[in-house]
Structures are given as C-alpha cells and as structure tokens.
Design brief:
alpha/beta; seven-stranded mixed sheet; about 35% helix; binds N,N,N-trimethyl-histidine
Length: about 325
C-alpha cells in the first residue's frame, strides 16, 4: 500500500495549535485530533473494548448485521473512502458485502500512521479489494480520493464511530457541507452517530474504572512533552469527564491539581495554570434521531435510511448527496 507521507508542516501545525489553545485567557483548549498519535490511537483501540464504552461495538454490530441492506441501497459502481479509518475492523463487514458485488477500491484517510498500517493489515485479505491509504487530514484526503474517481463511478464516504460528535453542531453541519461540495449528486455518506443516553452511562463511558480514558486524555500532555519539548508534569493533572447539558455533549478536560507553570519551547510559550483550572481536550456530542435528517439537509444531503442498535443507542445514517 502506498502511504502518502505526513506533510512536512505537521509538527509546525501542532506547535501553532498548542500555542493558540494554551494562550487563551478564558478556557484553555487543545484540539481533540491531537489525541491520536500512535500511543493515543492504541489507547482508543483499548477503550473500544471496555465494558463501559459501548459506542464502537454498537457501530460494528450495526455494520455487521445490516451490511447487505446498506450495500443494496447504494447504487453501483462505487469506490469507498473512510474518514478516520482507525483499525478498520468494523469496516470489514461493509467491504465484504460490497466486494461480493463488485471489485472495490478502498481509500482510508487517517492521520495516525500506525492506525493506517493496522487497517491495511486487517482488510487486505478480502477478495476483490484494492487498498490505498492516505495519511492526511479528512478533507485533504477526500479531495485526493475524488481525483481518483473513474467516469461513472460513485463515491461512498464512511464517517463512522460518531467522529462527527467531536465537532459542535454548527461546525458539524459545516464539515458535512464541505464534504458535500467535494462529492457529486448521488454519492453517498454513511454517518455513524452516537445517540443521547443517560448521564450515568455517559460518565462511565468517558471515565472508565481502569483509567484507560484518563491515560488517553493525559497522553496529550505526554505527546507535547515528546514532540514539542514540553515539561508538563503529567501526574499533576487529572482527567475529568463532564456533561454539557446545553450543548448535549460530554467533554473531556485535564484539571491542573495545583497552580503550576509549564514551558513548551517548540511552541514558544510559557503557560500558567491555576489550581483546578482545566484544559478542554474533547467534546463528544450526542444526537436525537430526527435531528440527523435536519443536519443532513442543511449540509446538502438527504437521509435515506437509519439503523439503530438495540443495546447501545447509536445510529448508522445513510445520506445521499442532492
Ligand atoms: C472516537 C471520537 C468517537 O468521542 O467517543 C473515546 C473518542 N474520547 N473516549 C468519542 C473518545 C473518549 C471517541 N470518538
């Protein structure tokens, strides 16, 4: 598999985003995409096996149970691209169903090199598949994939695992709108969305008893130490999962256990943190079923079908570009 290399400015982007996010006077923040270096991607893989975190298993169950039904609703021939493939495990069912119908090109787009490599190892044994990975950001990857499109071929974009939930609602619509502009009418988007559930269930899912989610969150500070020569004392921070009722999301923060100062030479900043001040690292928005059709419409898609898991409230939504 040909893996397009990380753009040379990746470290620079990280440094400049860290600088911007940690210089804020109000709520300090770090973009959640930086949680996924090799260590973070491996930790997320573990999270997806935790009993408290049912999201990934619900996603995979739906794709396994309904793969044929989903594929039957997608007019062919199609090439498949996946934004944030992760390990690729749950995509197998869909690709197998599709490959029974046609030879299929699969283009995973993933910022984690190790996740991309794992995805390729996981799926390369499927009959009638060719895999070409893109180690880049979602929209850049999608643009490149669209350039590979053959005449008469539709695209099926997979955006699974409720990654959309990391955007706030307006930004989610805007992102889907940008995806839509790269697509042609009749192209499809299979969107995975985590649905609203009880506060207790959410807090447990994002603050598991083993502390894997805490490690996943704290790794962002270690990553800054590794890649930007930061001097975070990781043990002086605590993982916090917090419900935001207004936004209908669950947030992850890193809470400073004491007043402290951190230096990050490669980002050219010194950061002062008060005792109990937090750095906001991620939001995971939760959806109501009917709202997904509205989001789709605002972004230029029509929601054609939804599949809902019966164990963990989660939906796969098949959207078609208008
Ligand atoms: C991979 C973005 C779907 O938001 O639930 C898991 C990441 N964060 N535990 C999510 C995550 C904390 C996850 N997504």
């Amino acid at each position: 598999m040909l893996v397009h290399p990380v753009p040379a400015n990746a470290t620079y982007d990280f440094a400049s985003d860290v600088r911007t996010g940690l210089s804020r006077g109000d709520q300090k923040e770090l973009p959640s995409k930086y949680l996924y270096d090799n260590v973070g991607s491996a930790l997320f893989e573990v999270i997806s096996h935790l009993p408290e975190y049912g999201l990934t298993r619900a996603d995979e169950r739906l794709l396994r149970r309904h793969a044929d039904d989903i594929v039957d609703r997608i007019p062919g021939p199609v090439a498949v691209t996946e934004l944030g493939s992760g390990s690729g495990k749950k995509t197998r069912w869909l690709l197998e169903a599709l490959c029974r119908r046609q030879h299929t090109s699969y283009y995973p787009v993933e910022i984690s090199r190790s996740a991309l490599a794992m995805c390729e190892r996981e799926l390369r044994d499927i009959d009638s598949i060719s895999i070409l990975g893109f180690e880049t950001e979602y929209l850049d990857g999608l643009l490149r994939v669209a350039a590979y499109r053959k005449p008469g071929q539709h695209l099926l974009v997979l955006f699974l695992g409720s990654t959309i939930g990391n955007f706030d609602r307006p930004a989610g619509v805007q992102f889907l709108g940008e995806v839509r502009r790269i697509l042609d009418p009749g192209d499809s988007l299979l969107l995975g969305t985590d649905l609203e559930k009880s506060t207790a269930q959410l807090l447990a899912a994002y603050n598991d008893e083993l502390g894997v989610t805490a490690a996943f969150n704290l790794n962002l500070l270690s990553r800054i130490n590794r890649e930007l020569e930061g001097n975070f004392e990781v043990s002086q921070f605590a993982h916090v999962a917090r419900i935001n009722q207004q936004a209908r999301s669950i947030e992850m923060h890193l809470r400073s256990r004491r007043r402290q100062q951190v230096t990050i030479p490669a980002a050219e900043i010194e950061v002062e943190l008060e005792e109990n001040e937090t750095i906001w690292t991620e939001s995971s928005h939760k959806y109501r079923l009917p709202e997904i059709g509205d989001i789709a419409r605002h972004a230029g898609f029509q929601c054609m079908a939804q599949w809902i898991d019966d164990e963990w409230p989660f939906a796969e939504n098949l959207l078609v570009a208008q």
